[in-house]
Amino acid sequence: MKIMITQHEALEKGIWKQVMSMFGITNDDEIWETEQFILTEEQAKELGLIR
Q: Which superkingdom, per the lineage (predicted)?
């Protein structure tokens, strides 16, 4: 299973810093709030999005 989350959703859920780390994103990178990230089931569980 794959889970998609946008930058805006990650910010709302308070997990943006973890998503940044998972995808190697730095504060200097330009990211749109509608940009989507595809998480594996394991990553989504790690972030508490699913059980």
A: Bacteria
Return the structure tokens found at 22: 């998972």
Q: Distance (Å, rounded) from C-alpha 4 to C-alpha 35?
A: 10
Model confidence, pTM: 0.89
Q: What is the pLDDT of residue 26?
A: 96
Q: Which helix (H) or strand (E) holds 8?
A: helix 7-13
Q: Whole-angstrom Cα distance, residue 50 to residue 24?
A: 22
Half-sphere exposure of 26 (CA within 13 A, CB side): 2
Task: For residue 22, give the DSSP letter.
Answer: H
